[in-house]
Write a structure and sequence with these properties.
- It is a single chain.
- By secondary structure, this protein is α/β, with parallel strands linked by helices.
- The protein folds into two domains: about 5-50 and about 310-415, Aspartate Aminotransferase, domain 1, CATH 3.90.1150.10; about 75-310, Aspartate Aminotransferase, domain 2.
- It is built from twelve helices and 13 strands.
- The strands form three sheets. A seven-stranded mixed β-sheet has the order 2-8-7-6-5-3-4, sandwiched between helices. It has a four-stranded antiparallel β-sheet with strand order 9-10-13-12.
- Helix 1 (about 5-15) runs antiparallel to helix 12 (about 395-410) and helix 10 packs parallel to helix 12.
- The longest helix is centred in the last third of the chain and has 23 residues, at about 310-335.
- The chain is globular and about 70 Å long.
């Protein structure tokens, strides 16, 4: 691979997705602008689409300010309308299988309890020991409340889960497996189809967390036979901080499942205000309370951009950006003690790459102070997430060049070793 800056510029010139960059606030048109931050944290929080403020203003100034409560006629179906947009354009699901609602944690809880109830007589929940904390916490909480056992499967923090290890942990006691499609720390990519099939053979259900996958890699829920999934919308889907999550339930399972939070938006005849809860048919039975209208509008804007770009094209560019990170790290950073902490095979990675160094926390702070924005993950990882929808190859080159300079100069050594709170 040609590792010159000119080669990175040539890749940008040939990039079929290059036009999308101008549709994000702060992305910057001039790659030589020294004040432009090199943003490599799109896997934590995506950039704001330039269309989002106008979309929000329309709802605020026209629908809320003028229409008031009459605007509920257009708002009330937003959760399923945007869900269908995600289903078709991002997730490879069918209409009526995706709902925008609540947070990822709440959606995970709802589907986990519903799935466990659908497997009576089975008393084990399986999760991965290195999975995202909220997933493991929810599994532990549900197991404790129900008198179930948690079976944590070990996984390599850099290479991800070994499917054979998971298969060995599955038996007739397992009700539900909770697993991320893309590992939050390393970016290791799971085989959704193979894992789902293995769990199904054992009689269990798989609940996928797509938070680091949706909008960056193809998940093809229908083609892969997935049963259940949740995911956030503020990373690669660019829905904004705290944007509502989505949940997916395969159509054939919907009438079998009853989620545990019985709210009026999940009621069959919502405005009858009846005395007893009767779950609505279809995906709407997984709704709970009044949806966040403004936040859902922002999700719709981001989801449309991803659908327009095409997840397959985004995945191709994401792999290429990751390959550039890896090649530059090997050439420039490895001599300073930096090691790749993600799968080397790009087919086994999502759209972020993680690098390990004993001074990862200090290095992260030094980079941020110099206009490069990665993030830190324990124990000693710098995580780089060049979101393919708006990140240039030259952005990666410049960021890695800055990384090299920090290491070579020892500029990071003056930073404190005690970590502040990282969100």
């Amino acid at each position: 691979m040609d590792l010159t800056r000119a080669a990175a510029e040539a890749l940008d010139a040939a990039d079929p997705l290059a036009g999308f960059r101008a549709r994000f606030a702060g992305a910057g048109d001039d790659a030589s602008d020294p004040t432009r931050p090199l943003y490599l944290d799109g896997n934590s929080l995506g950039r704001m689409p330039v269309e989002t403020p106008a979309a929000l203003a329309r709802v605020v100034e026209e629908e809320w300010a003028r229409g008031l409560v009459r605007s509920w006629s257009s708002w009330i179906g937003a959760a399923t309308r945007v869900g269908d947009l995600l289903a078709e354009g991002v997730l490879g699901a069918r209409p009526g299988e995706v709902l925008v609602a609540d947070s990822t944690t709440v959606d995970l809880y709802k589907l986990l309890v519903a799935a466990a109830d659908a497997r009576p007589g089975r008393d084990v929940l399986v999760c991965v020991a290195d999975d995202f904390p909220t997933d493991r916490y929810v599994v532990a909480g549900v197991a404790q409340a129900r008198g179930m056992t948690v079976r944590e499967v070990p996984a390599d923090i850099d290479q991800g889960l070994d499917p054979a290890v998971l298969a060995a942990a599955l038996d007739e006691r397992v009700a539900v497996v909770v697993l991320s499609a893309v590992a939050y720390r390393s970016g290791a990519l799971a085989d959704v189809a193979a894992v789902t099939a293995t769990a199904r053979e054992a009689g269990g259900l798989v609940l996928w967390d797509l938070s680091h996958a949706a909008g960056a890699v193809p998940v093809d829920l229908t083609a892969n036979g997935a049963d259940l999934a949740v995911g956030c919308t503020y990373k690669y889907l660019n829905g904004g901080p705290g944007a509502p999550a989505f949940l997916y339930v395969r159509r054939e399972l919907q009438e079998q499942l009853r989620q545990p939070i019985w709210g009026w938006f999940g009621q069959r005849d919502q405005f009858a205000m009846g005395p007893a809860y009767d779950p609505a048919p279809g995906i709407e039975r997984f709704a709970v309370g009044t949806p966040p209208v403004l936040a859902t509008v922002a999700v719709e804007v981001g989801a449309r951009l991803v659908a327009e770009a095409g997840v397959e094209r985004l995945a191709v560019k994401g792999r290429a950006l990751g390959e550039l990170v890896v090649a530059l790290a090997d050439a420039w950073l490895a001599p300073h003690g930096v090691a790749l902490a993600s799968p080397r095979d790009p087919a086994r990675r999502g759209s972020h790459v993680t690098l390990a160094h004993p001074d990862a926390w200090q290095l992260t702070q030094a980079l941020v102070d110099r206009g490069v924005v990665p993030d830190f993950r324990t124990p000693d990882r710098v995580r780089l997430g060049p979101a393919p929808l708006y990140t240039r190859f030259v952005d990666v080159w410049d960021a890695m060049d800055c990384f090299r300079e920090v290491l070579a100069s020892g500029a990071h050594e003056g930073y404190p070793t005690v970590r502040a709170r990282v969100t």
